[in-house]
# Entry
Amino acid sequence: MRKTFLAFALSAAFLSTGAAAEAARYNVDPAASKIEIKAVHTGKEFTGHFGAWQAEIDFDAANLAESKIKATLDANSFKTGDKIYDATVVKDDWFNSKAFPEITFESETITAIDAVAGQYDAQGHITMKGLRIPYGFAFTLSDLAQDPVKAHAEFTLDRLALGLGKTADPKAEWVDQDVKMILDITASADK
# Structure
């Protein structure tokens, strides 16, 4: 399942770690990074972000078989700036963050789409709300010879595929089924 609302949040965390010429561990700069979600509620777009997340990234463009990503998002840290939205998203039908405070993405494979252009694809799974869901996304990296490395991804996710709002809004009459995830990550190789 490639389209998922939370997945995009996890994906964002994944991108936050960049890449390097050797299988280096990358440290994310949270102040220069963001994991953002854009959605539409009753025709009005709103934006939210995860304020707390971690990513463990090892990346070697010459040895993608050994490269891996694991990102963990704090479901309770998702904020939109709207008190009603923020109070709703943590409820059982949405993130259910009291019972499941973490959302994770873990890669199984990373492949090059166009290594010269810095374009890659990560396939793996998202774990959230007690479910383990196959998920993948494409991302772009800046010049790997420069430090820090910047990663960027934008993709559409299907919130119903992850069971988000499935009871409260199963026909997507209030919140659009498709949401957009935007990842802008800045990271430096571990020294």
The longest helix spans residues 5-15. The radius of gyration is 16 Å. The helical segments are 5-15, 83-89. The chain has two helices and eleven strands.
